[in-house]
Amino acid sequence: MRPPVIRKPRDGWAVAPNMPDYEAARASFRWEQARGALSGLPGGRGLNIAHEAVDRHALGPLADKVALRWLGRSGERRDITYRELRALTNRFANVLRGLGVGREDRVFVLLGRTPALYVACLGALKNRSVFAPLFSAFGPEPLAARIGPGDGKVLVTTRALYDRKVAPIRARLPSLRHVLLAGGGAGEGTLDLDALMRQASDQLEIEPTRPEDMALLHFTSGTTGKPKGAIHVHGAVVAHHATGWLALDLHPDDVFWCTADPGWVTGTSYGIVSPLTHGTTSLIDEADFEPERWYSILRDERVSVWYTAPTAVRMMMRAGLDVARRFAPPALRFIASVGEPLNPEAVFWGQDAFGLPIHDNWWQTETGGIMIANFAAMDIRPGSMGRPLPGVEVEVVRRDGDGVTVLGPGEQGELALRPGWPSMFRGYLHDEERYAKCFAGDLYLTGDLARRDADGYLWFVGRGDDVIKSSGHLIGPFEVESALLEHPAVAEAGVIGKPDPIALEVVKAFVSLRPGFAAGEAIERDILGFARKRLGAVVAPKEIAIVSALPRTRSGKIMRRLLKARELGLPEGDTSTLEAGTP
Ligand code: ATP
Ligand code: MG
């Protein structure tokens, strides 16, 4: 039997955790103080994300330290020091300035994970323009749906991506003034970014930036419907920095690897900003997920802090424990995961594979940074998202008409947060009404369901939309999926509520199998029987379908709404973020 709690040592750490005592840190934490850990623009001219991430290190003792270590798809490597990153981002900001692009103008970036993407992000922020990342695998329609309503003024991309994806929709994007091509090949209607960079000065003084100036435009994953554009401001950097310190335990000597693409909020908040504000070396891998490649990177690059997603963990689990053990990453100290519930099996797998548990944490595009986490020095209750960050107040509530009732320990309800942390979104793009609907009184309602135990640990139940109502019970998909994953044949599981004349809904499971197991009636019966023993007859799936893979968003989330729509023969809705190659 697996233990219900993974205990953390009280002392004797090889690297002392930034937050040795959660309660004490929570009692004394103030956001104003967290702001004090940053330097602000010289001369009291405000707060700019890129200054905190790049310039303050480039102008100090870390100037020649590697800020970004880029690993190319075919084995190339490039190290960029803080000093170099400063010069590159200054040039990019000067290019924008030269084109008459300024404060709060939207700079969309459609690039793979290449250095140009990181330079464009930080350079745009230096120019006080808004960085709006686009996932490079988007096709023309998802691009039009973001650049158009996002009032994109500049697009940074490559010739190949432009020809295939942007040229067909360019006429529909009247706001788009400049298309800058990285890597050459500019022609009519486009500009050669590399040439402009060479001509631009590498000196720049960042103009005064207010903490409330708009900095980032991030689209949500589209798991539950049409993606929403969340607006974030420069002041968010205070949270990016503090949460990296508290929840990811970042130390300046770390080699940090966030595996998320900057097209999603995790890949920007933690794949670009947070590690740089800490002066760490941040790893960028251009290639797509492949278990052996990832294991080699963890080992050969001596990654010490690794921030990834449950889907990746599940895929690595699928490759087998022996592969993990063969690679034995020598410097790994802390592993964290976000984006989907992390099944207890995965937490323990971390221990089996690396001798380290995986620390789940929870947040959303809207919150801009980690809100609930399992911390380095805090005991883990596998299956729990952990406890709220210092400075973050969480409630579990029930909606009552226009208001809410705050629920007590053990009661299941909607996860709500009391705004006040700096990376809270400031609106949904062109959708005031939807934004307003997220609030009741002084609480922000997240749309996720959870439970809090007597010690303040939060347990994810499911998204509000995914919860299943069966024979008078509310069933969270997470609990059912976690039980299914304990079956040795199950690699992935997604469950939905299927309408039923008697029970209202019954649970139907979709599972994919691990290598070596064959689909068939025998295994279906075995899995259903296993689930019934774990969960009881009411909660356990009544039906099962074995599939080759589950539909996932490009950010790695199981799209239960698609499973449901297909099961019921309903329209699929927005599928712009559906991962290519998933069914
Ligand atoms: P959309 O809002 O467009 O439907 P999305 O909510 O998936 O997409 P994101 O903002 O990328 O877009 O994802 C945030 C959501 O991911 C959370 O609201 C939650 O449902 C889920 N999530 C994130 N971390 C966790 C976690 N640790 N445990 C459970 N769920 C998580
Ligand atoms: Mg959401």
Task: Give a written overview of the molecule.
The protein is an alpha/beta fold. 30% of the residues lie in helices and 24% in strands. It has 2 domains: 22-449, Rossmann fold (3-Layer(aba) Sandwich); 468-568, ANL, C-terminal domain (GMP Synthetase, Chain A, domain 3, 2-Layer Sandwich), CATH 3.30.300.30. It is built from 18 helices and 28 strands. Strands 2-1-11-10-12-13-14-15-16 form a 9-stranded mixed sheet. Magnesium ion is lined by residues 220, 364, 447. The site of magnesium ion has 3 residues, from loops.
Which helices and strands appear, and what pairs or packs with what?
Blueprint: H1 22-28, H2 31-36, H3 49-58, E1 66-71, E2 77-81, H4 82-98, E3 106-110, H5 115-126, E4 130-134, H6 140-147, E5 152-157, H7 159-166, E6 178-181, E7 191-192, H8 193-199, E8 214-219, E9 229-233, H9 237-246, E10 255-258, H10 265-277, E11 281-285, H11 291-300, E12 305-308, H12 310-319, H13 321-327, E13 334-337, H14 344-354, E14 358-362, E15 372-373, E16 387-388, E17 393-400, E18 403-406, E19 412-418, E20 427-428, H15 432-437, E21 439-440, E22 443-452, E23 458-463, E24 468-470, E25 473-475, H16 477-485, E26 490-500, E27 504-513, H17 521-535, E28 543-546, H18 560-568
Parallel strand pairs: 1-11, 3-4, 3-5, 5-6, 6-7, 10-11, 10-12, 12-13, 13-14, 27-28
Antiparallel strand pairs: 1-2, 8-9, 9-20, 14-15, 15-16, 17-18, 17-19, 19-22, 21-22, 22-23, 24-25, 26-27
Adenosine-5'-triphosphate (ATP) binds at residues 220-225, 227-228, 264, 338-342, 360-362, 364-365, 385, 446, 448, 460, 463, 555, 557.
